[in-house]
Fold Sulfatase-like hydrolase/transferase.
Amino acid sequence: MKAKRPNVVFLISDDHRDEAIGAFGNTVLQTPVLDGLGNSGVSFRNTHIFGGLTGAVCAPSRACVNTGKSIFHTMVGQELHKCEHSTDIRSDVKLMPQTLRESGYYTHAVGKWHNDKASFARSFDDGDKLFFYGMSPHTQVPVQDFDPTGAYSKEREYTEETFSTQLFTDAAVQFVETYENESPFYLYVAYTAPHDPRTAPEPYASMYHRDDIPLPANFSQEHPFDNGEMLVRDEKLASLPRDGEEIRQHIADYYAMITHMDAEIGRIVDALKVKGIYENTLIVYTADHGLALGQHGLMGKQNLYEHSVRIPLIMSGAGLPQGRQIKGLSSNIDIFPTVAAITDVELPEGTEGLSLLPLVSEERDSVRDVVCSVYKDVQRMAMDGEWKLIRYYRSPLTGLGSDRVQLFNLIDDPWETTDLFNDAIGVEPMERLNAALEDWMRVTGDFLAGSPSSERLG
């Protein structure tokens, strides 16, 4: 069987930061399968998440990936300015799998769907081992079978004890092995790894010892100021002040989860090869967001430093060039338009993301001059590839947060350890990025656009 348009295997993980891949320069972590996909395809090394209005950043981030739109134009919620926890995608917004389905693709889902069930139902023809929550123990996973009615009532759930990464991979491999339709397929595989609890099975759990794990250059015992989200669940996963040995163990466990997931992804790649469809399949690997794990004294993803907003994005197959690492700026809302361009599918009207194919063809160095991110009503970020501005706000709802600004030169200081806000060299980039951020906030519908707090830069 060979489709005229490429099949698509779309892989998305939970909490995987860009740095945590061997081929991207991590000399401790073993990721041979992801390394191989990068070597046989294209890696977009400057991809950042749009952000979120809730501590569970995965839900809005996945909505951005699947819609190619701003969360302010995508998510349901009459009081978004209150940063309520919303997983729902507006009914008039089309999703990537929905669009491919309407264009002749057979769409099949496996694993985590942290958005609403209605958006899932209109997007997929079928599915298996469907998980509609944010997290669970990896050996006690509440899942459902595909429901043709789209209701997915809680009464249909059953608990699987197979480790989540293997559970979802088993279902994905079975789909590949048994698929016989003439239509090209879109297989969506959403892992809950490497999200905590980080309890990788053996032999992976013993692969990394904390004594062999170097602390990151930006490790700190505590964050230097209140960023507006210091009391969230993730920040309570390690003691304060942060202990270096404890953080090393967290990183070791994190790496074990990633290496296990990498091996399981290899089983999907092997299944495609055995089936004889590997050459005609676009494989996409990305994540919903990154994670701090001791960097800047933080543990979670509720911040706008690079470790939390910069994600891996690898695309392999379907005629893409091999071994390219692209530095041009991109956002996770650009993933859908890029997949649509590769599969020759027309984008829905109002899509805000941009295709990254001009970077692949080297027609352009970047499709964006600046990339920006948001977090609740307490943080906003803009970066141009060299300079990065983070604006902090004091929340009018909680009183938490700080009215301040950080400025980093990412070329000289990739770990974001030296704040140049008060340095004369930072005046021009600070003013330029602040103006770009304000423009972006207005265009994307950000409720903080024009906030008086921005006047402190004047």
User: Anything to note?
Assistant: The chain has two domains: 7-365, 372-457. The longest strand covers residues 401-409. The radius of gyration is 21 Å.
